[in-house]
Fold:
Amino acid sequence: MTTIKTSNLGFPRIGANREWKKSLEAFWRKDKDVNDFLQEMDTRLKINIGKQKELDLIPVSDFTFYDHVLDTAVMFNWIPKRFRHITDPLSLYFAMARGTDDAVSCEMTKWFNTNYHYIVPEYDEETEYKLTENKPLAAYRKVKEEFGIDSKPVVLGIYSFVTLAKGYNDEEKGQIYNKLLPLYIQLLKELEAEGVTWVQIDEPALVAADNADVQAVKSLYEQIKSELTSVKILLQTYFDSVDEYKELITYPVDGIGLDFVHDKGKNFDSLKTHGFPVDKVLAAGILDGRSIWKADLEERLDFIQSLAGELDIAEFWIQPSSSLLHLPVEKHPDEHLDEELLNGLSFATDKLSELNLLKKGLISGKTSIQEEIKQSQNDLNILRQYAETGNREEGTQKELFHRELPFEERLTLQQNSLKLPLLPTTTIGSFPQTTEVRKARLKWRKKEWSDQEYESFIKAEIKRWIDIQEEIGLDVLVHGEFERTDMVEFFGEKLSGFAFTKYAWVQSYGSRCVRPPIIYGDVAFTEEMTVKETVYAQSLTSKKVKGMLTGPVTILNWSFPRYDLPKKEIAFQIARALKKEVEALEKAGITIIQVDEPALREGLPLKESDWNEYLTWAAEAFRLSTSSVEPTTQIHTHMCYSHFEDIVDTINDLDADVITIEHSRSHGELVNYLKNEPYEKGLGLGVYDIHSPRVPSVQEMIDIIDDALTVCPTDRFWINPDCGLKTRQQKETVASLKNMVDAAKQARKTASVQV
Ligand code: GLN
Ligand code: ZN
Structure:
């Protein structure tokens, strides 16, 4: 008889009402002293454990004060030089995360293919390896004391930790492993001495590892294992299938965790082909840890049974496919969604209830959960009907994926009709979202202000900034995006098929939480979204005003997608809706239209072998939304991303007339790249960093422009900041843009000689 257990990989830290965030921020503001703060964090930990109490295996030390990768770095004493003088551990920890007056914070980047961001560990040759604290042990003890539970500490594995870190080259890797290994062993031995039964070692990076790496890492685990006696290791992978499955199952560990949801069926295929070791536990990720949707319990039960049918093992765990970090904690009692939608949702705590039901079904038979099965299917059926908004815009055979004329011909036509100066200046779209702007929106949302009052406020703000832009002397103006809270929410609210929650927060990074829109139904155009503001702005000036939209891929990547359509289909639906907006803008006389795709690169699949498929449809979606315009209409796009290299083909493939891209912080990397791989279309390399209030000098921007012009054709080069200016203040924005325009004027003098 196989023993069936339920397990979890990690739980959201933030609390159902973002209590965790609030404690942290109060502590940072010094509104809370350290003792109160630590006590509140303990409470948060205990509440999280309490919510998982029903499970057989409960993860600990996934909980953190900021980020679990930062925890691991600090635990192994990977402290960048610039912070080493800080003696107080908590101050040091937060300094690395958030920076200090004299030291910039550590870099932050996306956690695999999710929208969670982790702190990148920094290595240098002087890093002194030691175990500063056994954090999993401390967490284990706390939970043991409070609940008497033998919980399952979670540790970020050696391979994934090193893979996620920076500051070393390939030759140094071996040495880093060798030095880290004793620390891992010490940490695990201490857990063993404490009586811990299972440790979950997270190795998500193994899913995409090649055979050589998987072999090399195996020897690390052999060394680890040889030092341990009683504590058991579960090697946990997630977010995709394991390419080197055959090798992985030979690891000297006691259990292996596999994702059977985001694996495109490959893990199951591998298991069928190569079997699964009889002496190991299989921890099977069978509920989507990243999907907000309820599971069809019968379908899942059948799946688990077919999986179990392939196994001959003593113990079998069922669990979510990944940590539940990426989901809201639970449905809020005051959530204002329609019942039909609400009942189809499953957040972190609901996932755990689903797990428990599945266990019951496995042990006592399907009939024992017959009621619940019916309920889940019923809820999903109702959701399906609810999602039928009647707004489906089917694709047609004749859909346009290409502009009528090739770029070079469009360029000439556009230059003749737009009549812009050489090296035109522009901005990326948003101007400062001041407290007044936010207050105004709040008043309007609370119905303290009528539509009319709000509209006239927005108009006044647009007018004010059109005047400012004219005064500064910019060439292509924008309306400023004052009516938008957020570049996805604004469009989602006007398109069909989207829902917005009040309380469904998820952690983006540190204390920052977001409420991603939910795409539940067919996305379609219902009304003009940006025409009114853009046309108004255009009516105030003889300069060109650029229309401003968020692109289909970004809208998709920053939302929770529906579960019953492939992402490509959803992206195409959004693209068709945006196409109508693009056409409406064009019809209203707007001849420059920017479609932002800052999140395009974020959607890249984990494995490079899957990139092409994604990038192909991503570019198609963009072109579907932008290709129907006249050749004289200039399409811009924008990305806040400077590593051009890996997606340059896609950037080209978008066939935008102009792309503006972040550049100022990349230390000339991009220019170096362009030296060998020239980019032929319109290009605006950001000439100043918008992340800081600092006003850049004219000369430093001239230097950047001159440098760029050594590799970019002058007749299609644009001058603009790195990104939108919504987080800035008016004062520094105006000063910086004035300097930028001066820099452009000077650059033109030399450039015009060359043309
Ligand atoms: N148009 C947007 C803005 O200026 C672009 C923001 C972004 O790239 N994230 O705010
Ligand atoms: Zn940007």
User: Anything to note?
Assistant: The radius of gyration is 27 Å.
